[in-house]
Design a protein that fits this description.
It contains nine helices and eight strands. The chain is α/β, with parallel strands linked by helices and about 270 residues long. β1, α1 and β2 form a beta-alpha-beta unit.
Length: about 270
């Protein structure tokens, strides 16, 4: 806890067995109250290892995608009474040591949302970010800052912390189940007027870190541009978009289950079928 706020780390996982233990070992357990991992039907030992590490584990019964994984993460974090939710990838691409300062910025009332920016400072390329991704990041961020009349150093980091009320208010079930979910959620946050802070985060690209390929990066980029234009048109009152209005749908039930060491084999067998 920080300032009486319960902090839950959520980890959207897919084939993360090689990096999970290293990531979890650096999570500050004296501050973090609970760690939830949602596995998107991995083919490796992610679920088994997560149980061994003492995490609270949820298993999707199929590979639904990164966006759907986060939807489950946030729904379960709220159900577990989180006051602050920190989303951390289990692939060790982001530093768990930064959880404390990110959560502190929310716990003490400075911001409602904090993102770990890989662009603040000069370490992105030195940390292994592919040059084409760096250039695309800068160009997309420029366009988004113009269209959304905001100013962030990047919109594409996967390291984020949220005050509970932010997640409760956003219609995240309207978002994509794919990678553009992150960008859509940030656009919704800006539309709702929540205060967003940034913290410099070192960049880590290495063999076992997850990264989407070029074709999926292009699709993501197009989705980012579409999100920004939808934001601008909705803001101007020229169109109405479900991303920025409407009640959230509850799809908690029916596609995943909580697992532990005793349940895991039975659920795994049912998934195989």
């Amino acid at each position: 806890m920080l300032n009486g706020k319960k902090i839950i780390v959520v980890m959207p996982a897919y084939n993360a067995a090689k990096t999970l233990a290293k990531t979890v070992s650096e999570i500050p357990r004296g501050v973090v109250d609970e760690i939830l991992l949602v596995d998107d039907a991995s083919s490796d030992d992610t679920v088994e290892l997560a149980n061994e590490l003492g995490l609270t584990v949820f298993l999707h019964d199929s590979n639904f995608g990164y966006g759907r994984n986060q939807k489950t993460c946030y729904k379960e974090a709220l159900r577990h009474h989180a006051d602050i939710v920190v989303m951390l990838h289990p692939d060790y691409q982001y530093s768990p040591h930064l959880i404390v300062p990110m959560a502190s910025m929310i716990a003490y009332g400075e911001y409602e949302v904090v993102i770990g920016s890989r662009i603040l400072g000069k370490g992105a390329l030195a940390g292994g970010m592919p040059r084409y991704k760096f250039i695309a990041n800068r160009l997309l961020t420029l366009v988004q800052n113009i269209l959304m009349n905001y100013k962030l150093s990047e919109y594409h980091t996967g390291f984020r912390a949220f005050r509970r009320e932010v997640i409760e208010k956003l219609p995240i079930e309207s978002n994509s189940d794919d990678f553009v979910f992150d960008n859509q959620m940030l656009a919704q946050i800006i539309f709702q007027g929540f205060r967003v802070g940034e913290l410099s985060c070192p960049t880590r690209y290495f063999a076992d870190a997850s990264s989407i390929n070029f074709s999926r990066s292009v699709r993501y980029g197009l989705g980012v541009l579409a999100t920004s234009f939808r934001y601008r048109l909705h803001k101007m009152g020229l169109t109405r978009s479900g991303l920025f209005e409407g009640a959230d749908a509850d799809r908690l039930q029916g596609y995943y289950a909580e697992v532990d060491g005793r349940q895991m084999k039975a659920i795994g067998d049912s998934v195989d079928k």
